[in-house]
Amino acid sequence: MSRLAGGASALLDRWGGALDRPDRLVAAVDRLPGAWGGAAAQRLAALATALAPDAAPTTGARLGVVLDELAGGKAGVAWLTLAVLSAELPLVTDVQRLQRAVRLDGPLAAVRPLLLRSGLHEAFSHGGPPRVEVTGGVVVDVAHTARTGLATGIQRVTRETVRRWAGTHEMQLVGWADGLRALRPLDPAERRQALTGAGGALAPGERPTVGTVVVPWQGTFLLPELAPERERTLRLMALSRYAQCRTATIGYDCVPISSAETTDLGVSEAFAGYLAAVRHFDRVATISAAAATEYRGWRTMLKAIGVAGPDIRAVPLPTERVVPTADDCARARARFLVGDLPLLLCVGTHEPRKNHVALLHAAETAWRAGHRFSLSFIGGHSWSSDRFVNSLATLQAAGRPVDDHRDVDDGTLWGAYALSRAVVFPSLHEGFGLPVAEALAVGTPVVTSSFGSMAEIAAGGGALLVDPRDDAALATVLGVVASDPTAVARLRAEAAARPARTWDEYAAELWTYFCDPGTTA
Q1: Which of 4, 29, 72, 487 would you label with 39, given CA atoms 20 to 30 Å apart?
Q2: Which residues contact 204 (CB under 8 A, 6 or more apart)?
Q3: Could you report the per-residue pLDDT of 220-255, keeping only the tens digit for each?
Q4: Are strands 131-135 and 463-466 parallel, antiparallel or unpaired?
Q5: CB 240 within 8 A of CB 89
Q6: CA atoms within 13 A on the CB side of 191
Q7: Residue 6 has pLDDT above 50, yes or no
Q8: What pTM does this model have?
């Protein structure tokens, strides 16, 4: 804390005992200097207006509203008071502490330090306090998608969905301030990144400027991405309990719980923290029926702690047809095709659950059996990908036609889908499996797992299902798509006949489920 902040804090300590009546506290607030006083006045006005929109616009009337509401003992009022006066979303323990202070010493004693210290830390340590905006509208948290250059399945779903929401509905896109303690509006570059992926990712450690803090209250709070950060989820837990908002999130999968052995150290713990917050949400829209089964299993456990949990509905991702351009196909042909060999394509990061090591083994088995094909991976290295990297290098050293590609743009990806003999996706666990749906949407046959969401997607035809834990069976199926033109033609016809479902339809269904009060869960 700066010397000026320390002096101001000492002054507050001397005032504290004398400010034992509302009128004295009002006088003290009106005497607060500069940015310090401006922050206190602005936040008190925002808080009182949210609690009683018709309150008189004087410091005394506003303080009276806050004290009267706090005296009622409602947890939501305590949460809002803390969120607005401190410009930070509080924790559940913070709310409980304030409620207990009100019961023991009365609302004046409880609110006095919060009001007098409004903006003090920011004003004297970080160049000025942010203003606080209380909103009853739709707030959409896209903190990670707005700051990252990654294009994983979660980011792709978030961008495709939120871009369509932004074009048809009133809403506010938000991220988190440094420290993950307060919501803030996105800046223009972050907004472009969240909606299109073209805004430019923020550098690691780069701190965004925070001029306004957003506090959702009696509105709608939507979380279309995964929130694994502990500080963020602890504050979302309190928001979902006390902010009196409709709350909803997209449920991607429960891999860190159901298949914890395939995740990196700390991922399961972080995901458990996310679920701790989501247990107080109103609705979860899972990306497949298989993911809904997982989430409903988790919800069943909540009965043991007296929590009902959210409504859970499967809202499957779309299978929209994308026709690659001639340029897309030309780039894909130059990058992926090896002579006249049929191309087998695998899309996804090289984390253990994607089962890429088993696919490399199956490919070598098929090559030794005399089948002719090339194998290309599109993805990126992830946790525990060393075995994949080593196996790939061994096969390449032996002269096998196998390679790995990163930084593939969407157009080239769709061109690769269209040029492939088949897309192979032998994952052990998926919430949906976008490459399966995307390949089938362009009419390309798929080899994928015989259970979970992958079997669910493949049920419409165009795919060969295999137990991904059976190396011999996987090698056999690779041989079929590489060497049996009759089987491939049948699969292509089945894929072409599949009904399409667009991102527009998905986004609209999701919005209705999340935001329409007339929609029953």
Answers
A1: 72
A2: none
A3: 999 999 999 999 999 999 999 999 999 999 999 999
A4: unpaired
A5: no
A6: 11
A7: no
A8: 0.89
